[in-house]
Input
Amino acid sequence: MIRIPCPHCSARNSAEFRHVGEAAARPDPSTVTPEQWRVYLYERSNPAGWITETWFHTMGCRRFITVERHTVTNEIRSVRPAGSSGPEPAEALSGRADAGSPDAGGQA
Amino acid sequence: MPDTWAPVARSAITVPGPRSVVDGWEVSTRRSSAALRLSDASPLAKVSVRADADGALADAFGVRFRSSRRRDGVLVIGSGPGEWLLVGGVGTAHQIAGQVCGLVAGDFVSVVDVTHGRALMRLTGSDASRALSKVCAVDLSDAVTPEGAAFRSSVAKVTTDVIRDDAGGGAGEPSYLLHCERSSGQYLFKCLLDAGKEFGIEPEGPGLDSTGAR
Ligand SMILES: [Zn+2]
Output
């Protein structure tokens, strides 16, 4: 279970989200080469470490968010609404603990 | 056959008990005096409104995401960023939509009557929070989810708008409104009855009288 501190809704179980994948900057379509476009579409860095990725909060605010997550420990160090620039201040991460028991997401 | 023909609406939720047609809705007239009650509130008018999250309409409502407020008998719920759900008396959806349109001029606003496309139920009783927390991971304590708080989350794996609305429960007890897609309504209703079994939960009809009020 990963607990994702949604910048709109507060901390929620990752089962409420759809994992969109690694966030990559879209190259300018008017100047991009086919090779660069192929890399943008298909190649992912897939590191064992920090990654910037996009999640969609399907069962909450229905917004895309940008998350910095460590792929080994699943620690999350920043969240922000997708499209906004700087990382969200630590406020959202400070464990406002809006989510209760991690396993209480549904009927057993 | 009567001379005039009127359509009869049915809720997605089936509540056992005698039935009658009130305000165009075929509803169960069953009432319960159990300590924990789950009532079908689907006949209430539901209007979905979308607009700029920080625009003129948000200011006119005075309601943002994660909160709710009663405004001229209509419960205005901030159900998402830039998204509101308005709940009012049976048959008032068009009236509510008209009022919303009158609040803003020049802004892009979408107003949709979703009364018949959604299910609405109310869980009331001193054990309401304990029963609901069996199927919902969000902290329901008074500190995190006080009166008037609203959020959308997974309730029994169904995407559900949850509104803490003790005032609307009318019994001076914790009360939650739960709003989901019509097709999930019966399932969610049964899941909540199942979760509330150990607290002696009983289902009941919407409790409509001839004025549509509770
Ligand atoms: Zn969210």
About this structure: Residues 182-195 of chain B form the longest helix (14 residues). Chain B has two domains: 33-43+117-204, 45-115.
